[in-house]
Amino acid sequence: MPLLRFTVSPEEEGIRIDAFLAQVEQIPSRAFAQKLLKNGKVKVESLPIKPSYRLQPGDVIEVELEEPKPLAVEAEDIPLMILYEDKDLVVVNKPRGMVVHPAAGNPSGTLVNALLKHCRDLSGIGGVLRPGIVHRLDKDTTGALVVAKNDFTHLGLAAQLKAGQMTRVYLALVHGSLPAEEGAIKAPIGRHPVHRKKMAVVAKGKPAHTSYRVLAAFGPYTLVWVQLHTGRTHQIRVHFQHIGHPVAGDPVYGRGKEPFKIDGQALHAAGLGFTHPRTGEVVRVSAPLPPDLETAINYCGQRWAPKKNEIVLDPFPD
Questions:
Q1: What domains lie within the chain, and their CATH numbers?
Q2: Which of 18, 59, 88, 138 is catalytic?
Q3: What is the 3-state secondary structure (H, E, C) of 207-230?
Q4: What mean pLDDT, rounded, does the chain reach?
């Protein structure tokens, strides 16, 4: 069975073990973490502990994960917009509303279902449910996402992602007028202390770093170029809410109904850059805007900034 091992940092002191585990990518919820604890699958210094245990700096946590029960993940003939493909990997432009991999509430219609039809092979590192999946995008976030076709490529891409060597740039339409033309948001992100399905800036969260540059100011809205330097859950959405400029259309962290129609957050993964694990060549892939976000940007420009010059949406500016 897979074994996860963690060493508690000084910043994580005092966090309940079940809350800590709920932030681990391989553990889907706090309830699942509590089940592991109840079944003696979580040990600190080789001893089983209770869900109420609070972490101490230097604690070595071992988690024994049960092998996932194989699901009948079927290949489905779902159209995909392929941005780049070779024998090792494929980069797709994920549409709004598509979940990346199957789960209890989404057993079909996912990106994985579509990829299984498109590709003969995907890497096995993601397990039965997440074959080939190196990183994710939220259901209603659109844009570039890279998928590995073999384990060699998956390991190489995952190492770049962990080391912060993969370039991930986004375009976001946010509320309000930002105080500077460019800036950085460095604030730790963790599970919301009350609303467990949400993330938030919390003192004992994991370090998170987002940088941005203003592309166009529309008064009530601002179009920003955003770069991720870390990859926390909902990072861009949480960071911009934290500074008082939530992403437009965001049903979880936003301000409600917008004057333009958009079915989800106005957030698009516009560009992805990485070193190809096999060839060593730099790969840069751009993803075109989804129609509803393009319409929203045009609406803002025509209503609040009709005399401004054309907006340059280059995800990889020099």
A1: 3-64 (3.10.290.10), 82-162 (3.30.2350.10), 167-304 (3.30.2350.10)
A2: 138
A3: CCEEEEEEEEECCCEEEEEEEECC
A4: 91
